[in-house]
Design a protein that fits this description.
By secondary structure, the protein is of the alpha+beta class. It is 41% helix and 18% strand. The chain is built from 16 helices and 18 strands. The chain has helices at residues 2-12, 24-28, 35-60, 62-87, 89-106, 110-114, 117-131, 137-149, 152-188, 191-210, 217-220, 227-237, 295-311, 332-341, 355-359, 387-400; strands at residues 258-259, 268-270, 284-290, 316-322, 348-350, 367-371, 376-382, 432-433, 452-455, 466-474, 479-481, 486-494, 496-502, 510-516, 534-537, 541-547, 553-561, 567-573. Strands 8, 9, 10, 11, 12, 13, 14, 15, 16, 17 and 18 form an 11-stranded antiparallel beta sheet that branches. Helix 13 (295-311) links the parallel strand 3 (284-290) and strand 4. The longest helix is centred in the first third of the chain and has 37 residues, at 152-188. The two termini are 34 Å apart. This is Cytochrome C biogenesis protein DipZ. Keywords: Cell membrane, Cytochrome c-type biogenesis, Membrane, Transmembrane, Transmembrane helix. It is found in: Cell membrane.
């Protein structure tokens, strides 16, 4: 329901977005005709076509995108003819002559044919084919949520709801526009000029779409950016984040938060045969939801690892549930390498289909669920921190289960590199996604969705702003460098800067260079670069690029990739 509400209101505000501009001439081309027989069937057909094509693109993959291109060519031809008929009355008379003759045989009212709801629906189908590739950032968010839910039927429903919201706002504009057009016809006798002006607008729209400017230039030039509106809608309908279950007072019994769900949805297991709630009875279980490129997960892993080793002979079973955030985290080889690199020896379930995630109704990375020896969830903790409280919970559940002679004290992992604790700076920069589905703080104009585009960063950035330099193709989850020597610039605050990166499709290593305030980082370099700022991308993972030797502070970071093909996903800070 949350996503449906977001989808509908996101569709309503789409009329303020530049991605709707190429569609408007086609919608208003019939603004002076009865809405029920023209505008309404056209908008319905447009919304349904958009939802179907976008669903195919989201679920079916690249073949649907290519198939839609042929539909676009047909739609462009149809709408070009429509524009010419509006612009050139003699052309309209010539092309409609056979249809008028046929219409005269069927009815004496030739005008009735022109108001056919079926012809209006046909124009709606054509317009929907043109609109589908112009989806705004709110649509990217919806597709991300739909992918997490995993059902194509739900994806279609989300897209249809989004399209319905857009159709409602267009219908209101069309109703108002129709009255304005009728008034102008009566008072000024400007019908013929309006007809020609609409024809010119339709042909201009066809030209813009044929040249690809609808997903390039128009996404970079906005009359009213809807990003802030969309984010407010998300914040308004999203539940407040839950950080942890309240700690019970001494002597107070622990609440029962539910039963340990099935683990059978795991797509693969590491370090263990498949486990189940039945085989775990009698053991205290800590379930840790994580994903290997998440910096918060990485910083909590040393504690989870230490607990697993400290209490494994005293009744504790730790289970890592790897639920991917990015597509590359679904690769078993990548996960296996991460497990080895992080020295994880406890069982890990790959949750590529989010079956275990949904069984827990989980929404966070990392998330820790504490399960007693009877298979009941007794506590949880979301995010980093409160490691002593978590260890106290483990010890309490072990004691309640009858385990004695538990080792004392608290674990002190002494982690280093990216696994070391964050700086604690409350004003550090937020996690920032580069893909258009969740990008915020971009200062280089509008992002061209899925198109190769040459970007130029502004001369100055304010805090938490970032930009691209060079030729990039920005997709929903990541940006890909199309030509060498492209860069990403970020004015950040924090001690540490991390960036999730990956090589191109061929897996060839990619060289890069980092600067801070235009100079080599020196002592402020991270573990994945040297003091001169040089590094190599040899896998899909999180790279620590900055660790300021003298603590947190505001700096201008720039990473320049000497080779093309790099995939850039997300910044995190510490």
């Amino acid at each position: 329901m949350l996503l449906l509400i977001l989808a509908f209101f996101g569709g309503i505000v789409t009329i303020l977005s530049p991605c709707i501009l190429p569609v408007l001439p086609f919608v208003f081309a019939r603004a002076d005709r009865p809405f029920a027989r023209n505008g309404l069937p056209m908008l319905i057909a447009m919304a349904v076509t958009f939802a179907l094509v976008a669903t195919l693109a989201a679920v079916g993959g690249g073949w649907a995108v290519h198939a839609n291109q042929y539909g676009r060519y047909i739609a462009l031809a149809v709408l070009a003819v429509l524009g010419l008929t509006l612009l050139l009355p003699h052309f309209a008379e010539w092309i409609s002559r056979p249809f008028v003759t046929l219409g005269n045989r069927l009815t004496e009212k030739a005008d009735a044919k022109q108001d056919s709801p079926w012809s209006a629906a046909g124009l709606g189908v054509a317009t929907g084919l043109l609109w589908a590739p112009c989806a705004g950032p709110i649509l990217g968010l919806l597709l991300t949520g739909a992918a997490l839910q995993g059902a194509s039927v739900e994806t279609t429903l989300l897209l249809l709801t989004y399209a319905a919201g857009a159709a409602v706002s267009l219908a209101l504009a069309l109703l108002v526009g129709g009255r304005v057009f009728a008034l102008m016809k009566r008072s000024l006798g400007a019908g013929e000029w309006l007809r020609r002006a609409l024809g010119a607008l339709v042909l201009a729209g066809v030209a813009v779409i044929a040249l690809g400017a609808d997903t390039g230039v128009l996404t970079r030039v906005s009359l009213a950016s809807t990003g802030g509106i969309e984010q407010k809608l998300i914040d308004a309908v999203s539940p407040a984040p839950v950080q942890a279950a309240p700690a019970p007072k001494a002597g107070q019994s622990l609440p029962v938060e539910g039963e340990l769900p099935s683990l059978s949805g795991a797509t693969q297991w590491f370090n263990s045969a498949p486990l189940s709630p039945e085989t775990l009875r009698g053991k205290v279980v800590l379930v840790d939801f994580w994903t290997y490129s998440c910096i918060n997960c990485i910083r909590s892993l040393p504690y989870v690892n230490a607990w697993a080793q400290k209490y494994r002979d005293h009744g504790l079973v730790v289970i890592g549930v790897h639920s991917p955030e990015f597509a590359f985290e679904k690769d078993p080889a990548n996960v296996a390498k991460a497990i080895k690199d992080f020295h994880i020896t406890y069982p890990v379930a790959m949750d590529n289909d989010y079956a275990i995630w949904k069984g827990f109704n989980n929404e966070y990375w990392p998330a820790h669920y504490f399960v007693d020896a009877h298979g009941q969830i007794r506590a949880h903790h979301f995010g980093e921190g409160d490691y002593t409280g978590s260890e106290d919970m483990i010890r309490r559940l072990l004691s309640d289960a009858g385990y004695k002679n538990l080792p004392g004290g608290y674990v002190q992992p002494g982690a280093s590199g990216a696994e070391a604790a964050g700086s604690g700076d409350m004003y550090r920069s937020p996690e920032t996604y580069v893909g258009y589905a969740r990008s915020e703080g971009f200062a280089g104009g509008q992002i061209a969705h899925g198109d190769s585009w040459h970007y130029r960063a502004p001369d100055t950035l304010t805090a938490n702003q970032w930009a691209l330099n060079g030729t990039w193709t920005v997709q929903a989850q990541q940006a890909t460098l199309d030509k060498p020597n492209g860069s990403v610039v970020y004015r950040f605050r924090g001690r540490d800067l991390h960036l999730v990166l990956g090589p191109g499709e061929n897996g060839k290593p990619i060289r890069f260079r980092v600067t801070l305030d235009g100079k080599a980082p020196g002592d402020d370099h991270g573990t994945d670069i040297d003091a001169d700022g040089n590094g190599v991308i040899n896998g899909q993972r999180l790279y620590q690029l900055v660790r300021q030797a003298h603590g947190t502070g505001e700096r201008v970071f720039e990473i320049t990739f000497l080779d093309p093909g790099v995939h850039v996903y997300a910044f995190t800070f510490g």
